[in-house]
Amino acid sequence: MTRPAHASAGEMMTVAAARALKDGDRCFVGIGKPSTAANLARRTHAPRLVLVYESGTIGAKPGRLPLSIGDGILAETADTVVSVPEIFNYWLQPGRIDVGFLGAAQLDRFGNINTTVIGDDYADPRVRLPGAGGAPEIAASCREVIVIVTHSRRTFVEKVDFVTSVGFGAGPGDRERHGLRGTGPRLVVTDLGVLAPDPETCELTLTHLHPGVTRDQARAATGWELRIATDLTTTEPPSETELSVLRALEEA
Amino acid sequence: MGEITTLSDAVARLVHDGDTIALEGFTHLIPVAAGHEIIRQGRRDLTLVRMTPDIVYDQLIGAGCARKLIFSWAGNPGVGSLHRFRDAAQHGWPAPLEIEEHSHAGMANRYAAGAAGLPFAVLRGYTGTDLPAQTATIKPITCPFTGEVLTAVPALNPDVAIVHAQRADRDGNVQIWGITGVHKEVVLASRTSLVTVEEIVDELEPRPGAIVLPGWTVDYVAHVPGGARPSYAMGYYDRDNVFYQAWDDISRDRDAFQAWLRSEVLS
Fold it and tell me: Domains plus CATH for chain B?
């Protein structure tokens, strides 16, 4: 069998995010792309990945993709199921989780995330979004955070309208000042490439472009002047196994 | 205590205009039928509390029952936005909706403090976000032992807690298993409570991972099979994911929503 000619941009994003998870990691998973990526990782290179969902299911091993964070299949396949106060207080807050996986409606160059309102006036928003959910404390307390988000000027903005979850705040030292014990965003995985914070400035820098994507496309989809790593590399395209497992998951 | 009655009787006795009520269930065991009964009884000016206001609160808000919403994530899980909630928050239809917004960790701790009889809870949360500037019920607090600055949130003690559960016995002892969310905390935190159940049985057989709320912690138990639909009740029925998708269209338009309300809830 030959490799399928094209992985879609969305498939490339999911595969790139899955690769960022290491075998044995304990991963706090949200629904949608994070859950798809985490389940793909568990079925490929990271069979001992521990999936933790905010519904209180720890060590879930779902045979199909869950449709919500409280899908029954998570409880049925978990090592243990705990209450919601317990999942946040005993498991997330003390730093027992390695990786938190978050999405964003808006994201700025320091990886701060908005999922609350679009518009300048909180009391009279242009768009009312769902809000915080578990994200502020996931962003604060997981050892590190991976953000998975579609790359566009609407999302990648100079300044987020509302800080729902803190990335690096206004820059170096801000996490420590706020008493946030995790190290913050390690990667931002998009449909165009991968960004990582600069170790000195904490500013998100483009480190990888997915196959077929140009620097100009990434710049055009970013609402600030995008910094590009000097050693910018092309993401390894999805392997035959990654793609077939991902497609089987999404079809099931 | 633990009195077994009908849904309409329990709601009529417990829920009054202007009350603060919490219908809980974290994706699982959401007391949707009880929400519909509150709409039918025409309650107004309610303060609705719920971590994840999903379609049952979208319905209560769209039906004009709510004055205020205390919450941490308001969406249609796996589908998108709550259109009735958005219409109320953005356009004041059918009535203006005041909001008090938290994170899940904050809400869970507020219930836990309420259950524990404490005035507030302490957590590592919210710092660096814009939430404390908008929500008066998030304040810094200094640890008297270490000097560390943490976050305090006040206890939630609703007038009424309503949850759905798998089963109860004839003495009103309630058994719940699978994802139990904040069921125990909200019942213990609230001044009064109603549990709707799939089944009333002679004896509760032990179940792995199940919690039991003794009948003396619950005011009323009502037998409402299917009372969590379109959410699910582990061991009884699955989530109706098709309805959650369909809700997106029904709720997007005011007229379509009102037609749905008339045919599915009020008639």
Answer: 3-102+157-266 (3.40.1080.10)
Domains of chain A: total: 1
Give per-residue pLDDT as tens, B176-188: 999 999 999 999 9
Domain containing residue A216: 9-251
> Under 8 Å CB-to-CB from A123, ≥6 apart: which residues?
none
Q: Is residue A165 part of a domain?
A: yes
In this predicted model, what pLDDT tens digit does every residue of A12-32 receive, in sequence order? Answer: 999 999 999 999 999 999 878
Domain-located, residue A1:
no
Least CB–CB distance from A131: residue in B72, B128, B241: B72
Taking only residues 113 to 172 of chain B, the set having a beta carbon closer than 8 angstroms to any beta carbon of chain A reads: 123-131, 134, 148-150
Q: CATH number of the domain at A160, please.
A: 3.40.1080.10
**Chain B residues 63-122 within an 8 A CB cutoff of chain A:** 71-75, 77-78, 81-82, 85-86, 89-90, 101-105, 108-109, 111-112
B180 close contact with A: CB closer than 8 A: yes
Please state the ipTM of this predicted complex.
Answer: 0.96
Beta strands in chain A (DSSP E): 26-29, 50-53, 57-60, 80-81, 99-102, 106-107, 113-114, 117-118, 127-128, 144-148, 185-189, 193-197, 204-209, 227-234
